[in-house]
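Retry 2 of 3 after timeout on previous attempt. Resubmitting structure tokens to design endpoint.
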């Protein structure tokens, strides 16, 4: 992570264009013990790119559980269908949005494509491997992580089915929280994961999502935004 310097603190404090709450609170799965995970996007002033030392691509802090990306880096990751980044754009808990942030949100559909199937599935497979290791070593998975993996699989399946990304797990809240409490066996949770993975594969053949994101539209947004910042 980048060290929190006075300059990076200023970027988050004075140049954030979009900020939201993520994690369990955004997913509708919060409990009394849940942290408040904050995510944001800042626009580094264009003149900062005209020097040898470039502005940071991301900043951790200054608050606990807070992480922000520079706008260009955020868009790069979103075009790659990074699950965490795409979900940030769909948080129902928005804390700050500027006109630039509003235009970024208007591009949510431009970032969505069938690439999400690959990126979400790879992330899910990585998390599943860790859960299996936990079961082998400790006799049980980390149930909170199992819950969030199931939520991710549900989100990916429904994205492919509908072409829309919804992160609210409300319809599945009771059963997901039962997983978190360890009230389902690992065999039951694993069977649910397998079924969701199969349903996701089936949805890929009929998904309304385009093959690729609208790179040109995002590039135009970045070009205009950088140009406006340079003129200030």
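Retry 2 succeeded. Sequence:
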């Amino acid at each position: 992570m980048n060290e929190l310097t006075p300059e990076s603190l200023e970027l988050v404090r004075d140049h954030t264009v979009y900020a939201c709450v993520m994690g369990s609170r955004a997913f509708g799965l919060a409990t009394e013990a849940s942290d408040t995970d904050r995510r944001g996007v800042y626009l580094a002033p264009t003149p900062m790119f005209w020097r040898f030392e470039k502005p940071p691509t991301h900043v951790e802090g200054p608050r606990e559980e807070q992480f922000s990306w520079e706008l260009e880096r955020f868009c790069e990751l979103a075009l790659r269908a990074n699950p965490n980044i795409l979900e940030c754009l769909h948080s129902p808990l928005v804390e700050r949005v500027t006109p630039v942030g509003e235009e970024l949100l208007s591009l949510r559909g431009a970032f969505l494509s069938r690439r999400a199937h690959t990126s979400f599935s790879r992330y899910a497979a990585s998390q599943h491997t860790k859960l299996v290791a936990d079961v082998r070593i400790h006799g049980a998975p980390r149930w909170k992580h199992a819950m969030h993996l199931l939520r991710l699989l549900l989100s990916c399946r429904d994205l492919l089915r509908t072409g829309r990304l919804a992160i609210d797990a409300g319809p599945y809240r009771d059963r997901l929280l039962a997983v978190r409490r360890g009230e389902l066996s690992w065999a039951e949770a694993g069977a649910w994961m397998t079924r969701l993975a199969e349903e996701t594969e089936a949805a890929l053949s009929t998904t309304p999502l385009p093959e690729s994101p609208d790179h040109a539209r995002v590039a135009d947004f970045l070009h205009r935004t950088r140009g406006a910042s340079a003129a200030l």
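Attempt log closed. The two ends are 30 Å apart (CA to CA).
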